[in-house]
């Protein structure tokens, strides 16, 4: 039986707390979480480098940059921050591809949340993004109770937020290059999607709720694992 590793940021860490994670144990699946909260994509690459050869890997990529990252300055100094940050990420993805090939790893890769819209890209970047074999989640224009998804490299008002409803809901434009958050928006009931004010937190947490993580694992990720991984 191949061991399954889970790499990523807090989005993957959510799976530790879902009912479906117990399903792994019931199926006698050998697995290990390498994910950590607030992990950058470089951190996630380092997690991947800890994986043993001939293993299965769930690889969830995170923000293109964070305030503590060395390339965060691009948001202020670059003529096109998105394109430069994407180029930085391609270097990480290229190195991850080498690790995957050298260690004969089988992967399922996806993004945590959308950080750009399709009309911000050119054909070069569309082709480049499609070349890495990640799963992308399309989400049509929808109302939601949140106006941003975790850390955005843009002001959400500039590209995802069309207007505010009188019920304090936000109209998100359609998203082509979506991640787990966009799967959640499209598939989970509005009032159950996000962490929100859990544990009496005054800040509304835009991470997927435990309910949403459970649904994502049960309805999308685990079926993909059964199809692509050697679990028995």
Q: Your description of this structure?
A:
With 232 residues, this protein is of the alpha/beta class. Helix content is 34%, strand content 19%. The strands form 4 sheets. It has a 4-stranded parallel β-sheet with strand order 2-1-3-4. Helix 3 (41-48) packs parallel to helix 5.
Secondary structure topology:
Blueprint (H helix, E strand, L loop, with lengths): L3 E4 L2 H4 L6 H7 L4 E3 L7 H8 L7 E6 L12 H4 L3 H22 L3 E6 L11 H8 L6 E3 L2 E3 L16 E4 L5 E3 L2 E4 L1 H8 L6 E3 L8 E4 L1 H19 L4
Parallel strand pairs: 1-2, 1-3, 3-4
Antiparallel strand pairs: 5-9, 6-8, 7-8, 10-11
Helix pairs in contact: 3-5
Short description:
The chain is α/β, with parallel strands linked by helices and 232 residues long. It contains 8 helices and 11 strands. The mean pLDDT is 88.
> How far from one another are the termini?
6 Å
* Largest sheet composition: 4 strands, parallel
Looking at the structure, what is the overall shape? globular
Rounded to an integer in angstroms, the radius of gyration calculated over CA atoms is 18 Å
The string of secondary-structure elements, in order, is EHHEHEHHEHEEEEEHEEH
Defining key terms:
single chain, 232 residues, alpha/beta, Rossmann fold, four-stranded parallel β-sheet, three-stranded antiparallel β-sheet, 8 helices
